[in-house]
Design goal:
Elements (H helix, E strand, L loop, with lengths): L9 E12 L7 E12 L3 E5 L6 H8 L7 E6 L2 E2 L7 E4 L11 H14 L7 H14 L15 H13 L5 E5 L7 H18 L2 E5 L3 H7 L2 E5 L6 E6 L14 H15 L3
Parallel strand pairs: 3-8, 3-9, 6-7, 7-8
Antiparallel strand pairs: 1-2, 1-4, 4-5, 9-10
Helix pairs in contact: 2-3, 2-4, 6-7
């Protein structure tokens, strides 16, 4: 039976989710084992855990990019059987097309959907939204620039705009700031919180940085070593909006210690 959304509006419902790679081979790899999870509408959830435990696999399953071995995922009440337009994805690499301007890169998903007559609004609506998003992340003056002219952090901002331009309700982010220096990473964390506040998206964010997870999130999902199960879900009791200064508070550091202790139990 397809679940109905309650007053608390679960945006994503995961039931008994298991993923085994190469199940018919001599060396099958079980990545996820019986994950049960509810992610609520407009929630910021970070996912942490030991390296190689299956965090990216979980994200790809939610996004419909790979098929589960067993179990079900519902997004806004609909069973996920493949990629859906209501989800935007940002990977660790910005993967911008070098021959297209930044604005043209941002608009690429809209062009693809427009060819399929799959846009819910006229193209002009998305063209305006593309410019609005670039201005939101401070790239308005770089709309006509090419990727080679931008820093790594600026490219990731453009990738976030590209993921948001079709106005999906859910944004999946797979270590989007992992390759950046600490200063740029902290700056983009703050900008991401601003985007989260202004766009009312549900965000699922994978990271190896516990401080980043605590700073950004409403909850932090801690996975065990492979095959991943849910070790704990830590509620982050920090008021929004959040400033950089909150990182120095006792409450923030207590949350960091709580998450770290749960991870270290499986390292």
């Amino acid at each position: 039976m397809t679940p109905t959304q309650s007053k608390s509006k679960p945006g994503i419902l995961i039931q008994e989710l298991t993923k085994i790679y190469n199940p018919d081979s001599d060396n099958p790899v079980k990545a996820l084992d019986g994950i049960d999870l509810t992610i609520h509408d407009q929630e910021f959830l970070s996912v942490v855990g030991p390296s190689g435990c299956g965090k990216s696999t979980l994200l790809r399953l939610i996004g419909g990019l790979t098929e589960a071995t067993s179990g079900r995922i519902y997004v806004n009440g609909k069973n996920v059987t493949g990629p859906i337009s209501d989800i935007g994805i940002v990977f660790q690499s910005a993967t911008l097309l070098p021959w297209r301007t930044i604005y043209e890169n941002v608009m690429f998903p809209c062009e693809a959907l427009n060819k399929k007559n799959a846009l819910s609004e006229p193209m002009e609506h998305y063209e305006e939204r593309g410019h609005e998003l670039l201005n939101l992340v401070g790239l308005g003056d770089f709309a006509d620039a090419y990727p080679k002219e931008l820093s790594g952090g600026m490219k990731q901002r453009a990738a976030i705009c590209r993921a948001l331009v079709t106005d999906p309700s859910i944004l999946l982010m797979d270590e989007p700031f992992g390759a950046l220096d600490e200063f740029t990473r902290d700056k983009l964390n703050t900008e991401l919180l601003d985007i989260f506040t202004k766009t009312n998206k549900t965000i699922i964010f994978i990271t190896h940085d516990i401080h980043e997870a605590v700073y950004l999130s409403d909850r932090v999902l801690v996975l065990t070593d492979r095959p991943a199960k849910i070790q704990d879900i830590v509620d982050i009791d920090l008021k929004r909006p959040r400033s950089e200064n909150i990182r120095e508070s006792t409450q923030f550091l207590d949350h960091v210690s709580e998450v770290r202790n749960e991870i270290e139990a499986y390292i």
